[in-house]
Amino acid sequence: MTRLDQSLFAEHAYLPDGWRRNVLLEWEANGTLTAVTPDTAAVPAGVRKAAGPVLPGMPNLHSHAFQRAMAGLTEYRANATDNFWSWRDLMYRFAARITPEGLAAVAQWLYIEMLKAGYTSVCEFHYVHHAQDGSRYANQAELAQRVVDAASASGIGMTMLPVLYQYSGFGSRAPRDDQQRFINTPESLLDLLGTLRAARPESAALRYGVAPHSLRAVSADSLRTLLGGIDRNAPVHIHIAEQTAEVDACVETEGARPVQWLLDRFDVDSRWCLVHATHVDANETLALAKSGAVAGLCLTTEANLGDGLFPAQEYLDAHGRIGIGSDSHIGVDWRAELRLLEYGQRLTRRQRNVLASAQVTHVADRLFDAALDGGAHATGRAVGALQAGRRADWLVLDADHASVAEHAPGAWLSGVVFCEHGETPVRDVYAGGVQVVENRRHRDEAGAYARYRVALADLLK
Ligand SMILES: [Zn+2]
Predict the structure, then answer these.
(1) What amino acid positions are annotated as catalytic residues?
(2) Which residue of 389, 427, 441, 459 is most buried, as measured by CB atoms within 10 A?
């Protein structure tokens, strides 16, 4: 029997084996798909019909919510060698000022922007833990809890990754004054996670993991203690090899490149997400691909910060897992991330369709499938496919949009990823079976935007 408020009929839906016709999607009250049936003879009586082709919702595997408020404010030359590290100085100034109320407002607006773009899950790499003066909040999980609540209010699924940030550099260097809001130990972070988990228990929409910030900020011992204190399947995310200066410092103090160092010492597998992994040599590329870990690529941020290019072709050809993240949120659009992933390769190799394969000749299809699979692994949640047992997360394309209309289904993803002519083709979005975006508007958009502006004005005062 089909429950009318928990079913949708799509003339076209993108299932794990590609575009299928006349698909009936059915889910239960907790937001999990119970049946996905292609080739349904007719629209069952009273069942709603999707306004256009249906794609699985995209997981966003890397976010620092408060950085949304900085987008567009660092696009000028601050000194002759303006680079990542000068951007980081401004980020620290914002991190020093943000209040619990401000963080809640920025995060909720950001998650609404994500949903409107068709991201239905987010992994939040959350590192601002303490009060402005570095003292502990009465509730040690105050800020993380605000972020979890912002996700739940917006409707997006969340993997919350509280960050271990112990040192200011390789060789266990003491933290700096402007890092006091981040600093903790494995023990205090696990304690915070326990508090958070008790206040906001895990559910189909919420999963917990941990994020050792980077090899700069933890030691081998503290990483071991952290991993020993969590469920052995919980997601583990880490920033790695984003900048050449970081690679050089790691070689100098630890005697190995960062990715190699990590792979040699820890059992890195599919629960791990190595965010950026930009600067990997040929051996690291193959070893990382073999490990089953996800390379968390954040193309618009990496371009914005001048990080460099990940060797995507070699890695994908070695069956490496990738996912995408919006990280600093200079842009919040999975289509732009996938486009830039390919364009970086085209510009450096002076070729076209570099990231296609012999089996999947359309670049957009290959990258979309890869980012769904890797992104889902990174969340540690049952997402990333229109399939019974997964979360009822999808987006509905506008069938009349110029990137889709009159094209054959096999060209839809190419149009959606590579064409950019103004208005988004993403019309409606469902997360956990709830329609949160209708005709490009989120249900709470006006109020959330007003609160975001208040928070931003306060940060810029
Ligand atoms: Zn990051």
Answers:
(1) 276, 327
(2) 427
